Amino acid sequence: MDFASLAAQLNAGTILPELIVIVTLLTVMVGDLIVGRQNSAKWTPYVAVGGLLTATGALFTLWDSPNPIGFIGEFNSDALSIVFRGIVALSAAVTILMSVRYVEQSGTALAEFITILLTATVGGMFLAGSDEFVAVYVSLETLSIASYLLTGYTKRDPRSNEAALKYLLIGASSSAIFLYGASLLYGLSGGETKLSTIAEKISLAGLDNSIGLVIALVFAIAGIAFKIAAVPFHQWTPDVYEGSPTPVVAFLSVGSKAAGFALAIRLLVTAFPQVTEQWHLVMTTLAILSMVLGNVVALAQTSMKRLLAYSSIGQAGFVMIGLVIGSDAGYASMIFYLMIYLFMNLGAFTCIILFSLRTGTDQISEYSGLYQKDPLLTLALSICLLSLGGIPPLAGFFGKLYLFWAGWQAGAYPLVILGLVTSVISIYYYIRVVKMMVVKEPQEMSEAVKNYPPIAWNLPGLRPLQVGLILTLVATSIAGILSNPLFTLANDSVTKTPMLQQALTKTRPIAQGVEQKTAELPQPEIHS
């Protein structure tokens, strides 16, 4: 085989954005070794953010690519993967902006933190486009191991060590379960690892209704549900969110979750078409449990980080409605919701980081009367929380509106009604925080707010945090009103993905045939 044919089969241009992130990672790591810890903190965050934004721009050059398959079928740079890779990269960029001051104040090395975060980003981006089990598992473990390291990064904090240990033990178990499910699929398909051909080989072997396929499905869903923090695989979430460094929590809640949903769509739609009804039933159950438990338990929380932990569980339940529907509108509304969830959730975490830097606490009761000392922080946190609750005309309202409307059109009435009820419940605990900040009288201010330091943005590392705060505030405010471009992007990512269109065309003829047979039935005569 000559070099030209090898290069054509590899088609390395499909992973250009990931290559840019890897080069950025190596630049940060080597630069830190050369110039030293003190000097590297002045430029490494900006190099990292610049590399991530460049990678995001490179993603759009791959849109409508005539040949999206790379590395002999292991990687698929289709429209769906491009959008999810963009979400992961942007979440990492905003996370770096909010982490500069936080990491420096904790006394740990900033360049090492950014290096590990970029490693997790590479894993998440590869996971969104992997179309072969070996690539899926390597990407998943790259993301997971880097996440474990980030969770325990502030090693002088006992809570961070505890969170890392819990995350590691539960994560290792879920990875083992997922790998066992993958090994079952490998055996049932006669030694096939490509997701796109596994289902075909299983059908040729006549194993469409085998118990092994159902067991493989259960194990695969267990691994995915851990990554997206769906009930009952959510046990790690509250403790890890509370004990981890707050920027890490922000990345896990958006970047890691988006990568998990990308894996869920690609794996379930491609490898399990024979058991579509079964995985729809399982995911429906997970969505119901996640919406109910996440939003109800959040009512009793006293810590902002734990509140957003249970909130993220509930939000995963909402997003799963789009996955369960399994239509063009369902997938598009799911992707659209994840895009705006990026802004509003990272905005809320940016506010929590800023408040904890200035007061040293994240207790909800300590936010009493905050508007009198810090109007910008109060406004940003209020808008992000109200958007998460789905209050119009903010971005979260339109995200839930599209999701619930797609569900209603598909006939998933119980899911939509439950989603509406749990959304109302979530509004209560979001507004409770807003009321704590805005409605309290001056004499009701908490001790933390009474001792609030003078607002100064010229301290080292606070300018990037301010930029991240304003960007997420503006995006959350206007993304709802100007949601049409984002929804067009989400819709195009579904219609231009052959994998999804093939899965949808297989289900449409069945439905059309049922309608045709119903129309051909003799109609009963009605006599007056």
UniProtKB/TrEMBL annotation:
Group of enzyme by EC: translocase
Origin organism of this chain? Leptolyngbya boryana NIES-2135
According to the UniProt entry, its GO molecular function terms are:
NADH dehydrogenase (ubiquinone) activity; oxidoreductase activity, acting on NAD(P)H, quinone or similar compound as acceptor; quinone binding
| Family membership | Belongs to the complex I subunit 2 family.
The name on file for this protein is NAD(P)H-quinone oxidoreductase subunit 2
Stated membrane topology is: Multi-pass membrane protein
One GO CC term, this protein: endomembrane system
Q: Is Chloroplast one of the keywords UniProt gives this record?
A: no
Q: Specify the NADH:quinone oxidoreductase/Mrp antiporter transmembrane domain's residue ranges.
A: 130-426
Name its GO BP terms in alphabetical order. ATP synthesis coupled electron transport; photosynthesis, light reaction
